[in-house]
Prior knowledge:
By secondary structure, the chain is α+β, with helices and mostly antiparallel strands. It is about 50% helix and about 15% strand. The strands form five sheets. Strands 1, 2, 3, 4, 5 and 6 form a six-stranded mixed β-sheet that branches. A hairpin with a 2-residue loop joins β17 and β18 (about 650-660). α8 (about 115-130) runs parallel beside α10 (about 160-175). The radius of gyration is 37 Å and the shape is flat. The termini are far apart.
Amino acid sequence: VEKSFNLALYYHRDQKRLSGEPYIIHPLEVALILVDYYMDPITISAALLHDIVEDTNLQIDKIYKEFGQEVGFIVDSLTKLQKLSPFLNTGIFSSKNKDLTLINLKRLFISTSKDIRVIIIKLADRLHNLRTIKFLPNEKQKRISLETLEFYVPIAEKLGIWKIKSEMEDIAFSVYDPYTYQNIKSYIEKTSEKIQKNHHKIIQVLQEKLSKQNINATIQSRIKTIYSIYNKMTKRGVPLEEIMDIAAIRVIVDKVNECYVVLGIIHNLWIPLPDRIKDYIAKPKPNGYQSLHTVVYCDYPVEFQIRTWDMHYTSEFGVASHWKYKGINHLGEIEKIINNWKKELSNLENIETENIPQEILQERVFVFTPKGDCIDLPLGSVVIDFAYKIHTDIGNKCSLCKVNGRIVPLDYKLQNGDIVEIITSKNASPTLEWLKIAKTSYAKNRIKQFLKRKNKKEYLEKANQTFLSVLKDLKINKNMDMDKIVNLVFEKFYKNAYRDIEDFVLSIGEGSIKYETILSKVKQIFVEEFADKQDIESENKNKKEIKDKNNILGSGVFYRFAKCCNPLYPKPIVGYVTRGKGISIHLADCKNIKNLNKQIINLNWEDIKDKKILKLQILAKDRKGLLQDILSVLSSKTINLLSIDAEVLDGKARIDLSLEVPKNINIIQLRSQITKRISGVIDIKI
C-alpha cells in the first residue's frame, strides 16, 4: 500500500483538482472510503493507482510488473471503464432507447469488472467525486448527478452497499432537483420530532416485553432517505403528506430464531396490517439483503425491520461486508450475488434475433455507435453484423468501417468497448462473400433478401429449371400446368414461411430450398391433388349402373379415403364406386363427384369399420423440445404415427405427420389440444 501511494504521489505530483487541492487527495480519499470496509491491501493499492494510467504517462505494463497480476488487472479494468464515461452522458440524454442502452451499459460494466473489487473501487471513486461536485460548472453537476441516480446508484443497490448508495443518491438528488429535495427535507424536519416521540413510546413498550423474554435487542428509530421517500411518491402517485412510512423502527438481535420471536411479540402488542409482512430471511433479496418486515397499526401505521447483526452488516455494506466482517475467504456468496445480477440483466435485454434462441444464450459483445448508443451482439460478431443491427439500409450500403477511429476490414471481429462507425455509399451492396463473413442470422437473412432482389431474373430461371427437372424425374407430363403446381406447393407447405409466392420461388433459385425437398413436395402434391381426380375422370368414361345406392360397406369390400377432399369426421360422406379399386370415400359436397350420381352410394361414418389415414401439417416457431411436445400430445390419443418429416426455415419449423386415426376422430378437438398444449404453434393444416 505504501509503495502504491508513493508511486501515485510521484506521477500525480504536478496535477491539481478543480478545488485547487493536489490531485493525490482524490485517490487517497477513495482508498480511505474503502478502509472503512476493511478491504484487503490489494484493493487499497489498486484504489490509490486507479487514475494513474488514464491521467499520466505511466503504462499499465509497469503496474503488472511492480505490483503483480491482481493489482494490475484491477487497475487495467478501471482504466477500461473510463471509456464508459462519454457514453453515459449520451446514453442518458441522447439515446433513442434510453432504458435498453442503460441496461447494456450496466452489462458492459459488470462484464468488464470481472473482479468485484473493480466495481467497489469505481463506486468509491464516484462517491468522492460527488462530495466535491460543487467545484464543477452547474451543467456538469446536473449531468453527473443524473448519471449517478440512473447508473451508479442502481449498481450499488444491486450489490447491497447501502451506505455508499444512500450517500450517493442524497448528494446527487440534492444537486439534480434541489427544489424537490429541499421540500422533502423541510417536511422531514417538521415531522421528525413528532415521529421520534411516538417511536420512543413504542420502543419502550417493546423493549420491556423483549427483556421479559430474555432477548438482547438493539432498537433504533430511523428516518428513511430523502430519495427513497421521493421514489415512494412517484411510484404511488401521491403527494408527500400521504406517505405514511417515511420512518421505520429497526430491531437487531443476536440469533435468527429470535427474529421470529420478536415478530410474534410485535403482532401481539399491535394489530398487523394484512399483506404487509415480508420474510426476506427465508427468501433473501437478490443482493443478499435479509430482514423481517412488518407494518402494524398503533394509532397510525408503523413499520418494523427485524434482523440479526450479521444481516445488519450485510444490509449496510453489501458484498463489501464479506471483507469487513467475514474476511476475504467468503467469496462464494459474493459470486452468487453477482450471478443473480447478471441473470436479471440478461432477462431485461431486448435482442432481435429472427427467432434464433441459441443466439440469446451466447456470450455478448458490447460496442458503441459514435453517438454513444450501446449495441450488444453475440460474441464473435463482425462489422457487418453491427451495420445490420443498426438498420437494414445501413448494412446494405456499408462501404467502409472505422473502429476506434481506425479503418478496419468488414470481417473485423468486434471487441467490448469498440466505438464503431459505418461509412455508407450508394454504390455499395451485399455480395455472396458477405454471407460467409456475417455471423448473426439477422444479418445473413437481410443479405439473402437483398441478393434475391438483385439477382431476381437469374433466381427465377433457376427455380423454373428446378421444377422442370422435378416433373421430368417424377415422369409427370411436362404440359401439366406449372403455375398450378408451384402455387399448390407454396400454399400447402410454405405459405407461412415466406412473405409471398415470389419470395418462395426466389428462395428456390437462391438455393435456400434444396432440389430434393421440392421433389418430395411435388410428389406429395401430385398424389394428393391429382391422383383421385384422374381416377374419377377415368371411371367417368366407363360409367356403370349401381343398383343399390344405399349399399353398406361390408367385410371384404376394399375402400379408401379420397385425397382430393380429405374426408374428416363428422362431415357428411358418400362412396364413389370405382372399377377394380373398390370404393373411394369423398365428402358429400366434393366438386369432383358432383356429376357422377350413378356411381354414388350413401354412406354414414358408422359404416366404416376401421381406421383412416390423416395428413397433418404443423407450422410453429422452432425451439428445443418442440417435436417431443407434439409427439407427447399425439401419444395421448388412439393415434398411430406412420411417418414424420420436419424442416426448419427462417426460425420456423414445419412438421408433416402421417397418422393412422380412428374413423370418427374429432379433428376440431385434436387441433384445439395441439394449439393449447404446444407453445409457439402458428398454424395447423389438415
